[in-house]
Predict the structure of Oxidoreductase.
Amino acid sequence: MIEEKKDSAADNSRRGFIKNTAIAAAAFMIVPRYVLGGKGFLAPSDRLTVAGVGVGGKGESNLNNIYKGGKADIAFLCDVDDRRAAVSVKNFPKAKYYKDYREMLDKEAKNIDGVVVSTPDHNHAMIAMAAMQLGKAVYVEKPLAHDIYEARQLTEAANRYRVVTQMGNQGASGDGVRQLRDWCDDGVIGKVQTVYCWTDRPIWPQGIAWPSTGGAVPKELDWDLWLGSAPNKAYIEKLVPFNWRGWWDYGTGAIGDMGCHLVEPPFSVLGLSTPTDVQCSVGSIYVDEFKRGIFPDSCPPSSHVIMTFEKTKKTKGDLQIHWMDGGIKPARPEELGANESFGTNGVLFEGTKGKMMCDVYGSNPRLLPLSRNNEVHTKQRAERVKGGVDGHYWQWVEAAIAGYGKIQLSSPFDIAGPLTETLLIANLAIRGTEVQKAKASGTGFDYPGRDIKLLWDKQNLRVTNFDEVNQYVKREYRKGWSLGV
């Protein structure tokens, strides 16, 4: 990603380009409906021309799943690491390849209908925003953004630019979460009182110091472009392509990685908004006798966060969701048999008349005790998505072809934005546990964020009773990079 020119003339030129291209792109979308020939062929207006940004790993699977739906052409590939892009380049040999998403959008905007963003978390928002400003449909891998401010800006931009959006939490389109909704709507478990979500993540290093020695940047990797909006730091081994998740500059920890898959079921089933308050405890690393390690650059090895949500029609009063990661799990439900699996990743709903649970992505929904699943029969109320989890990708393609507002999606930014905000509010509590204040005695430190409940002001995007964590609501981008708002 070539650093942006800083003179006002370049800025004005870019703004003019975006405006003119958006107008041109709107006209370009109107394609004559002619038959290409033979059964099974689709007119150009019934196909979506897609560009992928970040096309290795999850980006590779995202593009493959979108292509398998049969109505999308993968025409452009963009990645800062040629090694990671190699499989996608092989899979889509006709696609034009770029390293800098800005260059790709500048040169190819008129030829692109939708953009799939599958980069590390810290660059999601600015890529998605640039695409939306050009009137492009966007599919953004979870979590939607790295910061709360970014998530709110993307949500508002989706409505402002009237573009089709979807976040990559594919379980939101699965049958499982819809079965849970049917049970809840039919009152099978009564009013929900408490929800527990847990994961075995992190499965990457966390709770560690930033390495003191770096390494040689691989020739295939453009390190400056990979850093993007993040602070300028020397390259270190094993950060790319996976372990960045455990560092606050790039990732959002276990809850950012898995919360969109595990908190989504209660969020959608119960009709929740962002929490009113959060509190947490985190696992500790001791580096010597009675000496706790303080590693503010890295997410902790484990955490337990309690988020409070206002009452809805389906809850008994205000609701608490307990998030647990690092292998921490809630007490085993007494209704579950001794040899019946509780799962390494799961969600448990506790209601006034019973309990229900599911695995990651909302899969394998079941009532407790398991014998109830043979006894309870409810009417299917929630409409299923064709293709289920795989249909999450195809739904986005269909909606983008149909046009803004024509097809209801499972995780548009109106839903994905508040869900992402919720997870990042939880991260404020987690990061708050590392805030140090020098003791009045002049010897040692206090940690005032470890034993309090953070009160959240949704309107103004700030914690009202512990200002020290508000610095993480909106981070400073590296010079030369911008969200574009």
About this structure: Residues 236 and 344 are 31 Å apart (CA to CA). The longest strand covers residues 315-325.
